[in-house]
Design goal:
This protein has 447 residues and is α/β, with parallel strands linked by helices. The chain has 19 helices and 13 strands. The strands form 3 sheets. A 5-stranded parallel beta sheet has the order 3-2-1-4-13, with helices on both faces. The protein has a 5-stranded parallel beta sheet with strand order 5-12-6-7-8.
Length: 447
């Protein structure tokens, strides 16, 4: 290490967000960047711990201490080479990962101020593109063809890895462009879609073939045409809320809003009656996770009149939770950039029914009490009888996704990402895609 005492003298410094009054008028990325000196100082805080828990916590096994040390010394190319050994897409995770490594950082566990691994990772990736460290490889081909169905983070990771192993890889994507939820779920203000296009361009130059607008209905037939098939179709079915009034107009699944808005920004046009927009409306988001947060930020940029978010679970503790200690993920209140832009947040509310005459005008909610389950497991939910109506003429359902069910496939078909596990994190999807590629390699070398 170049500066073994930096963690004692240099506090954590984040790049922060663009001012609210500026950012809510466009879909540009909200997160700012530090200058080179500050970024290298932040990297110097990494202590090269005797037991670096960040390695264990990261699904990709990123070696933070190694590339942080290279970054601190200004060895940006070395930092990128170390980073890409474990992470093929640091430009994605550097923007949208919840940074599991930071919650495992010894500095976080002792002082509450982890090393800024995620921001450092993004800075390294961007410098790599800027300085030309991202080069085009020309793998030696082995003559075997592999198909990947789905081009989300898991499918891209699998395709990229197999291509570098020498396979001829074809990616089939039902949509008009690659990225999956990276493109059609995550708003541009968190991940500019040019970042995805840039990586796809590299993969295409390296030999990966992308086929767009083609849904694969018969996986078994495709498996007869290719040596192996990787199924990375994600979790296409969102969890719905079937309560009285669900058929009213103005009630949409979260991705109806998010996916359409991203397509509009890409130049696609929609008829007025097809457009899902929050302009001038009282908006209610049901669901307290990241997807709900993305809906809030999108609605603000569309010009909503008011914004409310409700959650059926209790409000998480602020700052620290003695019940969720290491090595568990700390369950604490998360305030996103979208929340900062304005939102009434409420917890312990169940949705009883939607109210309106053809179009939703309000939602009846009722207080919730969670009681311990005498048989163990999930607590028992009871309603407390306290009902009220929340005014809303646009309701967005952001309650997660259902784990997909799959039939039995031929032995040369492998599942990965959310298609295998159910909805999870981008970083876990990438790790699953890399693992699937290794399994294909093992399978095809044994037959």
């Amino acid at each position: 290490m170049g500066n073994p005492k930096a963690f004692l003298t240099i506090p954590r410094k984040e790049a922060g967000y663009r001012p609210v009054h500026d950012r809510i008028h466009d879909f540009g990325e909200v997160e700012q960047t530090l200058n080179t000196r500050d970024r290298q100082e932040q990297a110097s805080r990494c202590m090269d711990c005797g037991v670096p828990f960040c390695h264990w916590a990261c699904p990709l096994g990123n070696k933070g201490p190694e590339w942080n040390d290279a970054l601190y010394h200004g060895e940006w190319e070395t930092a990128y080479k170390l980073l890409k050994k474990t992470n093929p897409f640091p430009e994605f995770t550097g923007r949208v990962c919840p940074a599991l490594c930071e919650k495992a950082c010894v500095l976080y566990l002792t002082t509450g101020e982890a090393v800024t691994n995620r921001e450092n990772e993004c800075a390294i990736a961007e410098r790599a593109y800027l300085e030309g460290y991202v080069t085009i490889d020309s793998p030696k081909r082995n003559g075997k063809q592999v198909a990947v169905i789905g081009s989300g983070p898991a499918g891209l990771a699998a395709a990229n890895s197999l291509n570098h192993m020498g396979y001829d890889v074809t990616v089939f994507e039902k949509n008009e462009a690659a990225g999956g939820l990276l493109r059609y779920g995550i708003p541009n203000f968190k991940l500019n879609k040019e970042i995805i296009d840039r990586r796809i361009n590299v993969m295409e130059q390296e030999g990966v073939k992308f086929v767009y607008g083609q849904a694969i209905d018969d996986v078994t037939a495709l498996a007869q045409q290719f040596a192996a098939v990787i199924l990375a179709t994600g979790t296409p079915t969102a969890r719905d809320l079937q309560v009285p009034g669900r058929d009213l107009k103005g009630i949409h699944l979260a991705l109806d809003l998010l996916g359409q808005q991203n397509r509009v920004l890409a130049g696609m046009e929609f008829k007025k009656e097809e457009r899902v927009t929050a302009k001038g409306k009282d908006v209610l988001v049901i669901g307290g996770g990241d997807t709900g947060s993305d809906c809030i930020g999108t609605a603000h940029r569309q010009g909503c009149k008011s914004m409310t978010q409700i959650e059926i679970m209790p409000k998480p503790p602020v700052g620290h939770d003695t019940k969720s200690t290491w090595p568990n993920w700390p369950v604490i209140l998360k305030t996103t950039s979208s929340h900062e832009e304005g939102c009434t947040r409420r917890w312990l509310l169940n949705t009883n029914r939607f109210i309106g005459n053809g179009h939703v005008k309000g939602v009846e909610v009722e207080g919730v009490i969670w009681e311990p389950n005498p048989d163990g497991g999930r607590p028992v939910m009871k309603l407390d009888g306290n009902k009220e109506i929340i005014k809303a003429d646009l309701v967005l359902l952001a309650m997660g996704f259902l784990k997909p069910e799959h039939p039995e496939y031929p032995e040369n078909v492998l599942l990965c990402g959310d298609a295998a596990s159910g909805a999870s994190l981008v970083v876990k999807a990438i790790a699953s895609g890399l693992d699937a590629a290794k399994k294909v390699q093992t399978y095809l070398t044994q037959i």
